[in-house]
């Protein structure tokens, strides 16, 4: 890096869990500094949040439009380089569109937008702006997920025939949980969109299935439910999938699995070998074959793929986890910005608008299939209204 990349944030004020996670991740490698923000829809709360983060009053804005206008007027060496969006889902599109049109790069929390149509509408805005857009599919930042991707791509597993992803949490197991700050907007269709569980965590599992295997979901069969009485959005679900190479998959996600913390697992079965990874034991990746000893890959031990090495910070035996994986997304995005400024191609890989569109398509297809009595449904991504 030749300089620090300057970040502005929308959302993430007092009491917002994910905003603080984004800020910690951005700081880890020392490549990014927070210089401004519109941290809340309440101007006073936004100001107090910014001051508590050590920002000057002049860089704590009442809303994102004020922030974009004011930052645009600052000298190039002072204004923010990109906007980090950490608001509830219903605000993502408006903030991203305005930021891009104002000349700023965008890194957004997932899901990308409130609806698939918004994600599709955002694609031409990104193209016309000439700016970068990234999506924080955090789990793609883990070194062993990158190693899994490399092993599949190398042919080590042979043809992939089955993929199983599970993401189980228990924090929404009771209706009493709905009143909390982190839960209240996620169970509200006016803020979260058409799905709670699949939109919040199922989309991560679907993203990992495609990211690691290099395959795409082409059909699905879905069963979503609101287990807790009175909820308007799903809190549990199972999605069966078919992939473009003929492989089958199973995706299970739940936020009412009592006792579960953040239990994300991925298993990929090929004709020759299989892989298994657990987010709660992220430094380990198992490679298994029939009638042979299993092989354990450990972060920082032995030869690894270049992408794995680039995502590894500490020597073996020093656990790396969620924040470091998150930080890899931020570090790679900062690298993309530097390359963009120098008119260079970047080797850094950050989930982008194509991942955003497929994520929103997964959510909407899963919800639609669950409401239908038909078993299998094509995975539809309708770009036609936005194609030239």
Automatic annotation (TrEMBL):
The keyword Signal applies. Coiled coil: none annotated. Keywords: Signal. Residues 146-275 form the GFO/IDH/MocA-like oxidoreductase domain. Residues 5-135 form the Gfo/Idh/MocA-like oxidoreductase N-terminal domain. This is Gfo/Idh/MocA family oxidoreductase. It comes from Alteromonas arenosi.
